[in-house]
Amino acid sequence: MTAIVAFLAGAVFGYGLLLSGMTNPANVMAFLDVTGDWRPALAFTMAAAVAVALPAYALTRHYGTSLRGHAIRTIDRTRLDSSLLLGSAIFGVGWGLSGICPGPGLILVSSRTLEAFVFVGGLVAGMFAADAVRSK
Amino acid sequence: MSAGAIPLWHSLAGGALIGAAAVALILLNGEVAGVSGILDRALHRSFGEQSWRLAFLLGLVLPAVLVGPGPISWQASAPSLAAAGLLVGFGTRLGSGCTSGHGVCGIANLSLRSLGATLTFIGTAMLTVACRHVWLRQ
């Protein structure tokens, strides 16, 4: 059941990304390009996603479990530490260079192009590198 | 850098679907729909209890496999994309999340941490694009 929910949620997520146009790096760049021809579309997509998810997270915080009774892992919501900010800053540089974040990156593999393969290869290698650094 | 105009309803409906997927994952499975975290843990352990992560990732790529990924205009050369991928992978793990985990789920969970992360990565991404204009004299 958990895997079926996850599979269907993944498919809805993937279709949403395709529909929003944010799997095309050019559309992401258009949002990041504040000194050029700026387009706000990504902000509308993000705002809609947050608006839909807000009530569900409020419910979850209230009950502390999922509707099927899973205990929700407590996530720190307040601490702004240096790993969080440095990591996010580095992610932003990679995002700004490519116009691709992890979700669209994986989806772009379906294009079976060299560009998608090298991006995801770098993505996976970068994750292993960070895990190695963090476990020290 | 060319980008066609995206109809407003595509932006909003696409975002609503992403939000709906996050709702299903937190309400039914008690999990956060953060792609970088799901990918990272799936790379380390993807069997038994962990198999839902692999299922999520397979679902994520399914629509694009079925209907095609749509138009793609690459914004960098293959070597630059490899370097960008490294930065995205390293940064999202060090920072514990990406656009989906912090930007959508974290902000929806009213997390100050996620808001700080999101403003940081959007900020450095915008700065990177602006620097590219100067260096490439575009």
Verbal overview:
The complex is a heterodimer of chains A (136) and B (138). In chain A, helix 5 packs antiparallel against helix 6. With 136 residues, chain A is mainly α. The mean pLDDT of chain A is 94. Chain A has two domains: 1-75, no CATH class; 79-136, no CATH class. Chain A has six helices and no strands. Chain A is globular and about 45 Å long. The longest helix of chain A is centred in the middle third of the chain and has 23 residues, at 41-63. Chain B has helices spanning 8-29, 35-44, 51-67, 78-94, 99-108, 112-136. Chain B is built from six helices and no strands. The longest helix of chain B is centred in the C-terminal third of the chain and has 25 residues, at 112-136. Chain B has 138 residues and is mostly helical. Chain B is globular and about 50 Å long. Chain B has one domain (8-136). At the A-B interface, helix 1, helix 2, helix 3, helix 4 and helix 5 of A face helix 1, helix 2, helix 3, helix 4 and helix 5 of B.
Ordered list of secondary-structure elements with their pairings:
The complex is a heterodimer of chains A (136) and B (138).
Chain A (H helix, E strand, L loop, with lengths): L1 H19 L4 H8 L8 H23 L18 H17 L3 H7 L5 H21 L2
Chain B lengths: L7 H22 L5 H10 L6 H17 L10 H17 L4 H10 L3 H25 L2
Helix pairs in contact in B: 2-3, 5-6
Give a short overview.
Chain A has 136 residues and is mainly α. Helices cover 70% and strands 0% of the residues of chain A. Chain A contains six helices and no strands.
Secondary-structure element order of chain B, as H and E?
A: HHHHHH
Question: Which structural class should the secondary elements of chain B be placed in?
Answer: mainly alpha
Count of alpha/pi helices of chain A = 6
Q: From the alpha carbons, calculate the radius of gyration of chain B and give it in angstroms.
A: 17 Å
Quick check: average pLDDT of chain A? 94
Largest interface: A-B, 114 and 112 residues
Main sheet characteristics of chain A: none
Residue share in β-strands of chain A: under 5%
Helix content of chain A: 55-70%
* Fraction of residues in H or I helices of chain B: over 70%
